[in-house]
Specification:
Thioredoxin domain-containing protein; 5 helices; alpha+beta; antioxidant activity; Thioredoxin_domain; Thioredoxin-like_sf; oxidoreductase activity; seven-stranded mixed sheet; Glutaredoxin
């Protein structure tokens, strides 16, 4: 089944329109610079199963540090399942490279300078900084599992840094999805 007849869902707030991407629908294209001075694009990902995009708040966030360090330890597990992985933030190049230096994420591909507009295209929530440690604006966390045809399989989008999905649970889910050929859900 494709996304024939899929409707674009837009949530209007008093500030901006937020687009909701539904499963089986094409996701926005994305191209970013990586901290290793290369470029990454979603279109170029030719995974066997999925591309996992993990949007994180930035260097200022201790919960992001925990999450990305946990993800970095699971890269081999994702790779064995044919999943390509990237972590993405609105941070500047300087902050993103500082993140790589200070956090234990040596092999994790990290993209930076996601624009606020692009974050909104992905349906991410945007926060304004409330302390000197936080950027003026940044996206809240989101996790997207995208099929090789660039359609959304599943997502988890949050309004704050707490209670993120666990990567062991996600790995188990990927095993189940592949074994049972389980379809994307939530598109109705």
């Amino acid at each position: 089944m494709g996304n024939e007849g899929a409707e674009e869902i837009i949530i209007e707030t008093d500030k901006k329109k937020v687009q909701m991407i539904t499963p089986r629908q094409k996701v926005p294209q994305l191209q970013l610079d990586l901290i290793n001075d290369t470029q990454w694009s979603l279109e170029a990902q030719k995974s066997d199963t999925f591309t996992l995009l993990v949007f994180y708040r930035g260097l200022h966030c201790p919960k992001c540090k925990e999450q990305l360090e946990s993800l970095a330890k699971k890269l081999k597990d994702f790779s064995e399942r044919g999943v390509h992985v990237i972590a993405i933030s609105c941070n500047t190049e300087k902050l993103a490279k500082q993140t790589a230096e200070e956090w234990d994420i040596p092999e994790l591909p990290v993209g930076y300078e996601l624009s606020i507009e692009a974050a909104r295209e992905w349906g991410l929530y945007i926060s304004e900084g409330i302390s000197d440690k936080e950027p003026e604006q940044f996206s809240e966390p989101g996790l997207f599992l995208v099929r090789p045809d660039d359609t959304l399989y599943a997502s988890s989008i949050q309004t704050m840094p707490f209670a993120r999905p666990k990567f062991d649970d996600l790995l188990d889910a990927i095993d189940f999805i592949e074994k049972k050929d389980y379809p994307a859900r939530g598109e109705a």
